[in-house]
Design brief:
Elements: E1 4-7, H1 14-31, E2 49-56, E3 59-69, E4 72-80, H2 89-99, E5 104-110, H3 114-118, E6 123-124, E7 129-131, E8 134-141
Parallel strand pairs: 4-5
Antiparallel strand pairs: 1-2, 2-3, 3-4, 5-8, 6-8, 7-8
Amino acid sequence: MPATQHAPLAAISPVTLYKILMLRTEVFVHEQRIVDEPELDGVDLEPFTELYWIEEDDSVVATLRLITEGDTAHIGRVATSRSARGRGLAGALIEAALSATSTDVEISAQAYLENWYGRFGFTRTGTNYIEAGIDHLPMRRTSGGRY
């Protein structure tokens, strides 16, 4: 398994940041057609946000962001390149992010991934809703939760 890396935006090299944003654009804008909401929403710039990523062959192949503000963290922007899916890379990033925080962690999960996130201790906390035209559901993992 390739090494996971993480840092706040200001500590990431411009080339690596470009690769992270390129992957997010590929997955969210081109594949999932999320065009009504900005991919670059300003949250990456906040001091309470860290980006996580895995690189292979000079490309970022998986990424997510962890937002830790107050007593709750939020994992979002989980993306894996099409060529790297099914190899556990997103799971490795989830595990790395969960091990970096001692707070409860929330996620706005795409509904079809409910069982996958359940493997990491996330449980549904409400009803489904549409976000960016895609069926989602709220999930939470309480601090100290096991997976």
